[in-house]
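User: Structure please.
Assistant: Input sequence and predicted structure:
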Amino acid sequence: MRAHLLLAVLLLAGCGVNASETGRTTTPAPLRPVDFPVDRHPRPIVLLGEPLAVERGFASNEEKLSGRYELVGPPPATPEPGALPLIGAAEAVAAMSRPSDRPPVKLVRAEFGTARFRTDRGALELPAWRFTTESGSSLARQALAPSAVWPARPSMYTATEDGLELEVTMLAAPQACPGHGPVTAEAVVAESATSVAVGLRTAGELGGCPRTADLRTQPYRVALSAPLGARLLVDGQGGVVEVTKR
């Protein structure tokens, strides 16, 4: 039971491991790169974290649980856009609010600035509307227009890049039961003009002994036919992998 649970977790996590009733790991369906606007200039921002950053923690449970925000007074003027289009403060407040029966959090100060957000190319300083609540909490909501942001689901993988080679941290091969195995895992890659997909191919007999559902990771070297460049890096389930320079 636990062996099948571990394999199910690995499959859902995007490593592409499958298993038969005998416990043999098999190669999954082919990896599929995704269509990403790689030639757009400037490149769309691929956000992997929340668009709202709580920089100075909520001062009360009411603020933390509300989910609704209300700007006190008229919104400040929106700066002229640079390379990327921007939204105004009122649009940012509407975007960061969600339906709730609780009283809204009052934002007593709004100013335009920058804040750091997680993207597919690491943490970046992005334009942001910075808000202060009446209790003194400090929030920052990225101020880019929807047309400048590419929606993404983050992967559990991470990677570093160095020319034609990636080092991708993915799940290690599961441990086989005594008398079985070894189970091996190797990285596989599929490239297109717009993205690169990475995953794992595993082989070996697991056996049916009880096992824990802990997830171990290890780095894998992946050779590319061309530098990653502006292309998107995704896992076998389409999740976007964060890439930083080595």
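The two ends are 40 Å apart (CA to CA).
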